[in-house]
Amino acid sequence: MPPVSVSDAHRAIDAVWRIEAPRLIAGLTRLVRDVGLAEDLAQDALVAALERWPESGVPDNPGAWLMATAKHRAIDALRRRTRVDRKHEELGAELDEAQESPSQAIDEALDDPVGDDLLRLVFIACHPVLAMEARVALTLRLLGGLTTEEIARAFLVPVPTVAQRIVRAKRTLSEARVPFEVPRGAELAARLSAVLQVIYLIFNEGYSATAGEDWARPTLCEEALRLGRIVAELMPSEPEVHGLVALMEIQASRLRARVGPGGEPVLLLDQDRGRWDQVLIRRGLAALERAEALGGALGPYALQAAIAACHARARTAEETDWARIAALYDALAQLAPSPVVELNRAVAIAMAFGPAAGLELVDKLTSEPSLAKYHLLPSVRGDLLMKLGRYAEARVELERAASLTRNARERALLLERAARCARNGASGAGA
What we know:
Distance between the termini: 66 Å
Number of strands: 2
Oligomer: single chain
Structural class: mainly alpha
Helix content: over 70%
Order of helices and strands: HHHHHHHHHHEHHHHHHHHHEH
């Protein structure tokens, strides 16, 4: 291939890396049994590409080039086993017993179907031995191909903090001797729940950013969707995987409509539904049908997807089937009870049966310790009080919600609504 400009080469490398990194790291991890070493070997291949492609040109099959380069690095690492830790010495002994050369072993390991390796990598990155922050960072690094800087920027934390989380996570996995395998039986359900939780946490941070100047971060939503789709392909018979994908697809369909021209938030009932992405909605409804066909209609993610589907199917806000949404929240509250689910159920009850009915439920949550600093509790309560014409009380609640949120866009929205309550209270006008 002819030489290319450095910028063109780097763009090509970035695109290839995002696609190939998980496969590369997964295959290497199965071989060297250390996710940290596997990532180092893959990074070596990336560095080699950065050095060579601007001069030699981008290969016709760049993914294969990276894989071949990583294989050579792995072979060199195994041949130096006398100077590395005991783990590699044991691996070398196993190779000797099998009368295989390092090159042959690596070729066989990396040329196996990649699906199982990717799935194993998913379960390692989301392993419960890691703290949630570490699982998220490691998942985005290993499976998303994001740099430390990109992860830090997405979650508004310092780069050194993310770097430390990733280093500690890999060290913890190594010290705990976490096996590179897909769990089975009862352990599979528990571990799969942890995987889905990590993916949905990533999505939620993109959908409603907890802090900063942006109301949403679509890039994180896209990354979570990509990860969810990968897991759905690797585990096609697991209904809750499809339930989560359905939920994310439908929610992601609203992203363009959630933000106004100036970056301001646009709430669900005020959104221009013509801007909702119909392709994502169709994908989400199809995934929901798969979850239900597999017997997963009552799984927590499938139930939330069914709620999202009620909104997606309504051509206007007025056509929303709030009674069905309230019933679905009843089912969710029984299956996965939590104060947050109860708060969402109260909103649905208010929309279906009137603000007074919703406020009665919300008032019961005001003494819930876990919601003491949860800004959406006073936000919902303020909204219901405003609808009931109790503007002075509503203003206090909305101002409290504004003081609790760390998102600048959301704070501005809440303060604007509080000011509207003050105006309405002074004039006696309706909301």
